[in-house]
Specification:
With 315 residues, chain A is mainly alpha-helical. Chain A is 79% helix and 0% strand. Classes of the chains: A mainly alpha (315), B mainly alpha (289).
Chain lengths: 315, 289
């Protein structure tokens, strides 16, 4: 098991190394010169040349990449171009904390919610409840966060006036003051994954219910409750657990849209800000961090699956 | 023994048709999907107003008989903008998905048929692309290359080629060992003939299923990029952009926002119902019980 984990971790590191190359070289081929970008269009050529020298832009690209990577690994993520040359790292970590709070809240909404809805639909399969849940989840899977988000805002903020439409929290806000502002964005970010987990759970539960071992369990006289908890759930929830782990990575994409819709100061909104300002160090740091989270969540899914399903481990 | 792949007989067509029609949800989805498709083709001709006709005097008017969905902040007819905007959704998603299917087919067939180092390399690259979050990849790509139509189509095809290639490759691995392919090889057919005439036709049904699914995802992606300001650029109408612009006056003119949101919802839901129907029609065994 340990060997398997290490192998997966090695794979993650390799992926990260590759994506760091992609990110770095992609940002290098941008038209325009970084030194010029920092100093502005009307800077004197000597000043630009001096800054180029200072930033090491005259060195070969590979040397630049290795230096950048070396600094990055050590936690020196460079200076942001658009926020008065403030260091990138503290900015990004602060935003990551906010995103993590929002993501965690979404996670504890959609995982139990999806499992319960999926089980309910599977146990009442082909009944009206199942049809409603199935069509509802199929619809929600395809709806972008900003569509569900604006509908939620329209209903719960503007019509009912229960929750605030914008979630611009400040660091001084305690959890108690933050919570009302977090509910709408968390639900918005949760809906796509909620629908996915619901469908996943329903499908695997239905499969388990039709399996031979469940029939055997019934025939040997176990009560429906015993069959459900001892035989159906154990097998049916295996795929769901791994999907729940992968979905942490999906949240990264959803949070970009959700945070920008609700003006929530998280990592996704920071990335969008960096993209709009063409702030290269900030783009590099946020993308690489989000990619890392994505890869780690995939790894977690693989490891969990191997842990739950011994057949995978010994291949 | 005949060389040509068996033609769909009339009775088989009838079976497929019945299987599709017997699923009311799929039929419902297909009807709405075709309606939107029609709008994508002729939307600019049937729209009641030009999509960019401004009438400052009539701005932010509520829905009425003249303006089904009201008017926006410049007095433009929201309904016309939605109808004209259909084209970019279909074009970007459709072209991107088709390009992905094309490259995925070539890559998957070649990797599956030849195997070896090429297969290994191609599949590792595919894994690499699939291991990155798609919206993130699209955001970075578009922000670096600029939001032109070509770039949008390109990023969609880059995102969806790996999954297509994987599907085609696994099918190719299965099919290439079947007796009829073996027969063709013994007959002395060339590799391209075997790949394109013997193997490819049998990989197409799952590819169509995958394409219909990817198309509904691409609507999601295109709309999200539009919302973030990185999609189709103004003045061309784009649903995501319309929603983004309308957020400012959601309180007193909700129709400007809710109408395009509803169109995205209806198109996405009908596309996925339609795609579900196609899957049940072509691969009934994988359908739900």
């Amino acid at each position: 098991m340990l060997k398997y984990c290490l192998k997966r971790l090695g794979f993650v590191l390799l992926t990260l190394l590759l994506s760091s190359m992609v990110i770095f070289f992609a940002t290098q081929i941008l038209p325009g010169d970084v030194a010029q970008l920092i100093l502005g269009r009307f800077a004197r050529p000597e000043a630009v040349a001096a800054l180029r020298e200072e930033l090491g832009l005259n060195e070969p690209v590979v040397v630049q990449y290795l230096k950048w990577l070396f600094n990055f690994v050590q936690g020196d993520w460079g200076l942001s171009l658009s926020t008065n040359n403030s260091p990138v790292a503290p900015l990004v970590w602060g935003r990551l904390k906010n995103s993590a709070i929002l993501g965690a809240l979404a996670f504890i909404i959609y995982v139990p919610g999806g499992i319960l809805l999926g089980l309910w639909a599977a146990l009442r399969r082909n009944k009206p409840v199942d049809h409603v849940i199935s069509v509802g989840s199929l619809s929600l899977i395809g709806l972008p966060e900003f569509v569900t988000g604006v509908i939620l805002i329209a209903v719960f903020s503007l019509e009912l006036n229960w929750l605030p439409p914008s979630s611009s929290i400040s660091p001084s806000d305690g959890l108690y003051r933050m919570l009302p502002k977090l509910i709408l964005p968390a639900v918005t970010a949760a809906l796509v994954s909620l629908a996915y987990i619901t469908r996943m759970t329903r499908a695997s539960t239905v499969e388990a219910l039709y399996s031979d071992y469940v029939r055997t369990a019934y025939l040997k006289g176990l009560s429906p409750r015993q069959v459900l908890f001892r035989h159906v759930l154990r097998n049916a929830l295996m795929p769901t657990v791994t999907v729940a782990a992968i979905s942490i990575g999906w949240l990264m994409g959803g949070l970009v849209v959700t945070e920008s819709l609700f003006s929530y100061p998280g990592l996704g909104r920071l990335l969008l800000f960096a993209i709009q300002r063409r702030d290269l160090p900030l783009i590099q740091a946020t993308t690489l961090l989000m990619t890392a989270i994505f890869c780690l969540s995939n790894m977690l899914a693989d490891v969990l699956y191997a842990y739950l399903n011994p057949r995978i481990r010994y291949q | 023994m005949s060389d040509s792949p068996p033609k769909l007989s009339a009775s088989k067509k009838k079976i497929l048709y019945r299987r599709f029609v017997s699923n009311p949800l799929a039929l419902f989805g297909a009807i709405f999907f075709l309606f939107f498709f029609l709008m994508a083709l002729i939307g600019d001709k049937v729209a009641p107003y030009p999509f960019d006709a401004q009438a400052i005097a009539d701005r932010l008017e509520g829905p009425s008989y003249e303006h089904f969905c009201g008017t926006d902040q410049f007095g433009r007819d929201v309904f016309s903008r939605i109808i004209v905007g259909t084209r970019s959704v279909f074009f970007l998603g459709g072209a991107g998905t088709m390009a992905a299917a094309f490259f995925g087919l070539i890559l998957g067939l070649a990797a599956g048929y030849y195997g070896g180092l090429f297969d290994e390399l191609a599949m590792r690259v595919c894994d690499g692309v699939m291991s990155l979050p798609s919206l993130l990849l699209a955001l970075v790509f578009i922000s670096l290359s600029g939001p032109s139509t070509l770039n949008l189509v390109m990023i969609i095809s880059i995102l969806y080629t790996p999954i297509m290639a994987r599907v085609v490759r696994s099918l190719t691995l299965e099919i290439k060992n079947l007796a009829y392919v073996e027969a063709a090889r013994i007959r002395g057919e060339s590799a391209p003939y075997i790949i394109f005439v013997e193997i490819m036709p049998n990989t197409l049904p799952p590819v169509f299923v995958e394409m219909s699914m990817r198309f509904s995802y691409s609507i999601f992606l295109v709309a999200s990029l539009g919302f973030l300001g990185l999609g189709v650029q103004p003045p061309s109408p784009d649903w995501g952009m319309q929603i983004n612009e309308a957020r400012g006056f959601l309180t007193y003119a909700p129709w400007v926002l809710l109408c395009p949101a509803a169109s995205i919802a209806v198109l996405v839901v009908s596309t996925s119902l339609f795609s579900d129907g196609i899957r049940n029609m072509l691969q009934p065994s994988t359908g739900k019980r």
